[in-house]
Write a structure and sequence with these properties.
With 354 residues, the chain is of the alpha/beta class. The protein has two domains: 116 residues, Four Helix Bundle (Hemerythrin (Met), subunit A); 225 residues, Rossmann fold, CATH 3.40.50.10470. Helices cover 40% and strands 19% of the residues. The longest helix is centred in the middle third of the chain and has 38 residues. The chain is globular. It starts with 7 loop residues before the first strand and ends with a helix.
């Protein structure tokens, strides 16, 4: 690892280079981020997205900011810019706060920031591998209990290595299952309005040769009723002290359908996704409100291979675009973490992580 990860890396000039996720799955492009403003823009416009990767970029963003300042007080102003670039994913705030705490007594901001950012991201990558292993143990247990040789897993949004270095969260157990020779099929929610499932998750799974099928967001409940889903795994952008989970809009509906059909519903997260200052996630977690154009326009490739964005609604109809919803802890079978499986319960979370 040491500054080299699948979704982002330090280039030969020691600037942060990232995969431009807004171009996938049609084009593979990277961007070099040389300034604080470029870091903030990449987070805001979703050049990079996924709670973990936002935190990763934020950590390297503090290093980038150190290249522009002369002292810690100046750095604080740029750190504030990065910290406020998106409101819901707590990994962003966690990474900025941790970096700033480590740098407050530094006499060599640039080199120390680089060292701390690499250490933070190496640790996150190691957590991702543990999530893969613990999550895959659940997959094997479900197959054994059902006496099946093939498992069908439903996921929502993208929580693979594009979202959390270096194996992801929700997709990490699936990658591990392939390594263990398990026959796995993934139902991929399209995840309107930005289609992270249809574009990013499907792209990742294609790269890895994992069997999958893209479905409209409203199909999951039917599949669960029909016995075609053995488990649901999602990622998260913030988890309260009591186990309430904020994730991409539509996750709550999947959890309700899973509960009604006795389908296990798991959430895979690194420790940095916990927000212990929030007790009631439904009431307290801030929900990002994004541009209505994401609902009204959709991007794709026409028959001539040209990427186009087209309007799919009446031009003057208003739209509202909540980026996330909150799934109450009572609907969650368990949290898949680097410390093993944890119930979405205040006491158990506190015992394992505080």
């Amino acid at each position: 690892m040491q500054g080299k990860y699948k979704a982002l890396w330090l280039n030969k000039n020691k600037y942060l280079e990232v995969i431009d996720q807004t171009k996938l799955p049609f084009e593979y492009e990277t961007k070099v981020l040389k300034t604080t403003d470029e870091i903030v823009k990449a987070i805001k416009d979703m050049t990079v997205r996924g709670a973990g990767v936002i935190g990763s970029v934020a950590a390297f963003g503090i290093y980038t900011a150190c290249l522009e300042v002369d002292n810690y007080d100046e750095l604080k102003l740029r750190a504030k810019q990065i910290r406020e670039s998106r409101p819901t994913a707590v990994n962003l705030m966690w990474a900025v706060d941790l970096m700033m705490d480590k740098l407050k007594d530094s006499t060599d901001l640039v080199n120390d920031a680089l060292k701390f950012a690499i250490k933070l991201n190496d640790d996150e990558a190691c957590e991702s591998q543990k999530i893969a292993e613990y999550g895959c143990d659940i997959i094997e247990d479900i197959l054994k209990k059902k006496n099946k040789s093939k498992i069908n897993i439903l996921t929502h949004c993208n929580a693979g290595w594009l979202a959390v270095i270096d194996e992801g969260t929700a997709l990490a157990p699936i990658y591990e299952a392939k390594k263990r020779g398990i026959d796995v099929h993934v139902w991929v929610d399209e995840t309107r309005p930005r289609n992270q499932g249809a574009s990013l998750t499907a792209w990742e799974l294609t790269q890895s040769g994992i069997n999958h099928t893209i479905i409209a967001d409203n199909t999951g409940g039917h599949l669960m009723q029909d016995g075609q889903v053995d488990m649901v795994i999602t990622g998260a952008d913030r988890v309260s002290a009591g186990g309430d989970v904020a994730n991409k809009i539509g996750t709550y509906l999947k959890a309700l359908a899973a509960k009604d059909n006795n389908v296990p519903f798991y959430v895979a997260i690194p420790a940095s996704t916990f927000d212990f200052d929030i007790i009631d996630g439904v009431k307290e977690i801030p929900i990002e409100l994004r541009s209505e154009d994401e609902v009204k326009y959709i991007k794709g490739v026409d028959k001539n291979g040209k990427i186009k964005e087209v309007l799919i609604t009446p031009k003057n109809s208003p739209a509202i675009n909540y980026g996330f919803d909150v799934t109450p802890a009572r609907l969650i079978t368990g949290l898949i973490t680097n410390k093993g499986i944890c119930r979405a319960d205040f006491d158990e979370i506190r015992l394992k992580f505080t």
